Amino acid sequence: MAKCGGSKRHAHMDVRVRVSRNIQRLRREKGLSQEDVAHAADVHQTYLSGVEGGKRNPSIDVLSRIAKALGVDISELFHKA
Fold first, then answer.
1. Which has the closest alpha carbon to 56: 69, 33, 38, 32?
2. pLDDT in tens, 48-77
3. Residue of 30, 37, 75, 78 whose CA lies nearest to 47
4. Are 20 and 79 in contact (CB under 8 A)?
């Protein structure tokens, strides 16, 4: 049982890393600063930095606002590279 839980935890971390990398990549591709995106998404810049660094676990609502600020559909945040 514990082994399965560990796998779920690993999968959870993979998704968080994927989302954080996609947010950072999309932001940079669009030439936006963290401050630009944070302001448009109504989150603090330090929070967005934590999301991009994989240290924060944002809600779906926050991810939706970040996606909107980036001009992409929220599904783009979950795409595998």
1. 38
2. 999 999 999 999 999 999 999 999 999 999
3. 37
4. no
